[in-house]
User: What shape does this take?
Amino acid sequence: MKRTPPRLAQLVLDSLGPDEDGLVGDLIEEFQAGRSATWLWWQVVTAWIGSGIRNARAHPFAAVSVVLVGWMLHAALFGDVRGPGWPWLEYRITNWPPRAQAARFFVEGLQNGSQFLVVGLVMGGSLLSGWFSEPSSVSRFDCSVSVLVVSLSRLVLCNSCRGVVVGRLVGHALVVRPVMGCWSKRRRVRRGVRRGILGGQPPKALHKGGGVMTGPPALSAHR
Amino acid sequence: MPRRSFISDFETMVLLAVIRIGDEAYGVPVSREIENTTGRSVSVAAVYAALQRLESRTLVTSRWGEPTAVRGGRAKRIFIATGKGIQAAREVRRSFTALWSGLPQLKGDTA
Assistant: This one.
């Protein structure tokens, strides 16, 4: 009986782009040969992280700019640049005495800085996993997933008691749904190309060639 | 930044596994070969990352196989060691042999 990988794992693997087709094919083959879902998820996570790191090393300037863009996107969505916040910490430091103002500002600075880094890296790293290396690929999916994760975590951590959940969810949906739609359309096109038009020729085969097994066509013809 | 000229511990393992497997060396057999011979558990993604680094230094080269349904319509990327890669493996062995020969206290298993 043919086993199909978990849908979310398949989506993440699809978002890696054609450069990773060999790796993705290996993981699917192993899963169908009897490997567990836990094994597959571990491989998917390492593949996703590795792909992001390789893309960042290959495009360092793009990596920095995309982290900034990711952060600005977050700020535009939520109207400030402070990030999710840690309510328990805010409660504690607002009760500190006036003499401890310097320490309070220091803690707040650490909090804001760490949030800037984490949120920017999460969103930027997700964008990086395909956007720059393969502009026509399914990396929009990563973008929308990261927006979803960040916004939901923010809602859970900070805003659940402030009465603005519905408004922000609507705003989030207005942004994410078109992105998801764009991604789904491209994915269907890509699948069609792989199954039909290419007819057994992998995407990179024409470019990388291998150079090991195949000789120049001209020489084959002369024989 | 100057490019490093040595190959790392893990890259050496991957290169040797490719040489041992021969014609059908792709991600999964390479990771299995490393696990079976060293007992070290490795992820397929890490193996591919090492293979790509080795390929960028022309120690291995790759070609694409035929896509199959069991792989979700994706082709195998098959790697093979180049002459330069085999030479690099020999150099690693020579270096390690030279280092081991200077350690008489580790000749037995008593150390």
